[in-house]
Amino acid sequence: MLMRMVIVTVPQEKQAEAEQIWKKGCAPLMTQQPGCLSEQFLRNRDNKGEMISLQAWENQAAVDKYRASEAHQEILRHTRGLMGVSKVEVKTYEVIG
């Protein structure tokens, strides 16, 4: 199993918009993808502009298939307006215990 973290930093004036875009447009689409076991949306308590989509995936093949899918392109379209003002970092971890 893999854990994937998509870390997004948005300015204060975009925080509410970013939350709504993720909750209504992105998360429901992502959790329907084959191999996506779960997704949680987290907000940093000390820096409310830093948000993380924490995703559990069956394996790398499932992540690769998702990234090549129309669903991934749609998620990118949902978030494109925020990308110009956001910092995005993606990290993937293997679950070892």
Low-confidence stretches: none
- The first-to-last residue Cα distance is 10 Å
Helix content bin: 40-55%
Shape: globular
Number of strands: 4
> What strand line-up does the widest sheet have?
2-3-1-4
The fold-level CATH name is Alpha-Beta Plaits
* SSE class: alpha+beta
List its traits:
alpha+beta; 4-stranded antiparallel sheet; single chain; 97 residues; Alpha-Beta Plaits
Please, could you describe this protein's structure?
The protein is α+β, with helices and mostly antiparallel strands and 97 residues long. The protein has a single domain (2-94), classed as Alpha-Beta Plaits. The chain has three helices and four strands, in the order E-H-E-E-H-H-E. Strands 2-3-1-4 form a four-stranded antiparallel β-sheet. Helix 1 (15-31) runs antiparallel to helix 3.
In short:
The protein is an alpha+beta fold and 97 residues long. The chain has three helices and four strands; from the N terminus they run E-H-E-E-H-H-E.
Q: What is the secondary structure topology, with strand pairs?
A:
Blueprint: E1 2-9, H1 15-31, E2 36-43, E3 50-57, H2 60-67, H3 70-83, E4 87-94
Antiparallel strand pairs: 1-3, 1-4, 2-3
